[in-house]
């Protein structure tokens, strides 16, 4: 019975996603977040992590993928206002905070990939912190990674900025195509602290690589489809 229900949800979602070009992330998350939170909170209260992860994946796959991330405004370390639409490549966006401790191999793995794929992907980290703290944290990241911040004590920015933090938590990764449509939303790699650096690096590198590959494959597919359409008489 559960499989039939999942299949039904899938087919319904397919018809909905056909209309997602018109749906923004803020609209999608506002519509589906209340029910998700009720079910997810219950799963966490009963320590049913598998159920909680299933609910998160379902929210992303059936409700958020294909929606367009709103053109929010934040600031860079020079206090300059930066808009999401300023990034012209596919975007690898990570939301973070200073009180979240990254696994040992996370930043080195991300730095290596940012150096390798900077010509194809815009790497962006958005910290929910003040400028002073973010400026210090930014020293750990490769120069190809754009570090931005939102100081909630001073934030009067768009609704979507608040929703990105308070709806999905952090660290959370948003994979966006050139049009800022959401290809996927992912949580960071989780592994026990204290494992050797090499193992932590490999786990994070593998996770980041798969996400970047998804972005590039999606972009290649879109380019191929657009080319075919332009050649069609």
UniProtKB/TrEMBL annotation:
CDD domains: TlpA_like_family (cd02966). It comes from the Bacteria. Pfam families: AhpC-TSA. Residues 63-217 form the Thioredoxin domain. This is TlpA family protein disulfide reductase. It comes from Salinimicrobium flavum.
């Amino acid at each position: 019975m559960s499989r039939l229900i999942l299949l039904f949800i899938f087919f319904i979602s397919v018809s909905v996603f056909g209309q997602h070009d018109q749906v923004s992330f803020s609209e999608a998350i506002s519509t589906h977040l209340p029910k998700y939170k009720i079910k997810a909170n219950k799963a966490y209260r009963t320590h049913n992590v598998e159920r909680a992860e299933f609910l998160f994946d379902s929210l992303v796959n059936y409700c958020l993928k294909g929606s367009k991330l709103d053109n929010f405004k934040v600031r860079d370390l020079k206090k300059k206002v930066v808009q999401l639409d300023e990034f012209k490549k596919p975007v690898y966006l990570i939301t973070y905070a200073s009180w979240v401790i990254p696994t040992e191999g996370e930043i080195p793995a991300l730095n290596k990939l940012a150096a390798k794929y900077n010509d194809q992907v815009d790497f962006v980290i958005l910290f929910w912190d003040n400028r002073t703290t973010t400026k210090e944290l930014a020293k750990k990241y490769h120069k190809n990674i754009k570090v931005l911040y939102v100081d909630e004590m001073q934030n009067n920015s768009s609704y979507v900025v608040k929703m990105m933090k308070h709806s999905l938590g952090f660290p959370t990764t948003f994979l966006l195509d050139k049009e800022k449509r959401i290809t996927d939303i992912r949580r960071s790699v989780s592994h026990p602290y204290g494992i050797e650096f090499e193992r932590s690096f490999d786990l994070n590198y593998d996770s980041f690589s798969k996400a970047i590959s998804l972005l590039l494959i999606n972009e290649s597919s879109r380019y191929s489809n657009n080319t075919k359409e332009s050649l069609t008489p």
